Amino acid sequence: MENELFENTPVNKAFFQLSLPLVFSMIVTMIYNLADTYFIAATGDTNLVAGVSLCAPIFTLLMAFGNIFGQGGTSLISRLLGQKDLRSVRHVSSFCFYGAILCGVLVGALMFIFSGTMLKLLGANNDTFTHAFNYYIVLAIGAPFTVLSFIPSNLLRAEGLSKESMIGTISGAVLNIILDPILISVFKMGSMGAAVATVAGYIFSDIYFIFIILRKSRQLSLLPGEFKIPGAHILQIFGIGIPAAITNICSSICLVLTNQFLLPYGNEKIAAMGIVLKVTMVAQLIMTGFAFGGQPLIGYFYGAKKHERMRQLLRFTFSFITILSLVLTAIFFVAAPVILKGFMDSEEIISIGTVMLRWQVASTLMAALVQLFTIYFQSTGRMTGSFLLSISRQGVVFILVLVVMANIAGLNGIITAQFAADLISVVLGGLLFYKQLYAELVGKAKK
């Protein structure tokens, strides 16, 4: 482990050294997502675009299961590294690796068994069912590889190997981008081609990550014999990882509900929202990269009881995230019509999509702050705060707001629901953070 990075490097420099590779990998992932949408939209088939968009919650679901072991394991390993408990680090990393594989196999099997029911719940109709099914079934086959990819990419960052994590993520995304036009357009595989390209990218990343852990990592282990860990560590992994997974699962549920509420207004509205959510992912992934980039530092400082460095990190991250969020909001708000036109030259989709996009990015700062609150809770092992925030912004709060606003304002209510939910969630997150964590961290640093 690069002790110099955690022990003596100035906090802001260490933050960027860990976060920039993650942000860059997020940007490449974003490009892959946009390219995926672009090549699908280039077919000019609205039903194909809508069918693939309906399957977006499946990605979020697979990410959720990966985050149980990825984020839960990273949080614990960062603190264990700060405590210099290297034996436990090896056992926890092995547990997370094989736990993710088993989880992916189980999820993939359930996706097969309940495919028809799932697709109906996702909102597939006679026009979109075939496109959605072709995409969905490939994701089910590749579920173990997709879930697994979130584990080593996170654990390597906890050890300070952020560049290696970046290379693995980018390599898979680049392969995906290369395969997309070949499979979608050249081989005329449509939605199935897009899904095959995606799964192939995750498999490539998994192979790379395994190679790096075996050859370069000093602390992580893939030995099956080190799979066993004490109950207290399992509680920490699931206590932090499950709230992180709930966030993703809630996002899936909320997206399904949004599509269901949009369904009476036509497939064009669903297609527009699908494109908008891919576009807003640009801002979300950038903010996520910087928020998660600081996670190894938070966990290490907390585990090593470096209170002054924690205070410096706290002040820097909140200032930086606020400024960056406002800049991104301004850019996307102004460029909304041009961005939408770049994906689909349909007057109706550009018109309604511009409104959707502007409302989505208007809450970028609020969403970023909620995420940052959550990262601090996760990294310091605060299960209660992490859980409450995980069910708020894209969970209970959003669902309640969506139902109320859809009934009051119809389509406009559906479009503005996320903004209203973010406003409520950032107030809740700020109060929880100040009461449960902020006073303790600042108080210790001043002693």
Descriptive account of the structure:
- This protein has 447 residues and is an all-alpha fold.
- The chain is 87% helix and 0% strand.
- The chain is built from 18 helices and no strands.
- It has helices spanning 3-7, 11-41, 46-54, 56-82, 86-113, 115-122, 129-141, 143-158, 162-186, 190-215, 231-262, 267-293, 295-303, 307-343, 347-361, 364-379, 383-390, 392-446.
- Helix 3 packs across helix 12 (267-293), helix 9 runs antiparallel to helix 10 and helix 12 packs antiparallel against helix 14 (307-343).
- The radius of gyration is 21 Å and the shape is globular.
- The two termini are 29 Å apart.
- The model has no long low-confidence stretch (mean pLDDT 88).
Give the overall pLDDT as a whole number: 88
Q: What does the oligomeric state look like here?
A: single chain
- Strand residues, percent: under 5%
Shape label: globular
Q: Which range best describes the helical content: under 10%, 10-25%, 25-40%, 40-55%, 55-70% or over 70%?
A: over 70%
Low-confidence stretches: none
**Helix vs. strand class:** mainly alpha
Order of helices and strands: HHHHHHHHHHHHHHHHHH
SS elements, strand count: 0
How far the N terminus sits from the C terminus, by CA atoms, comes to 29 Å
Counted by DSSP, the helix tally is 18
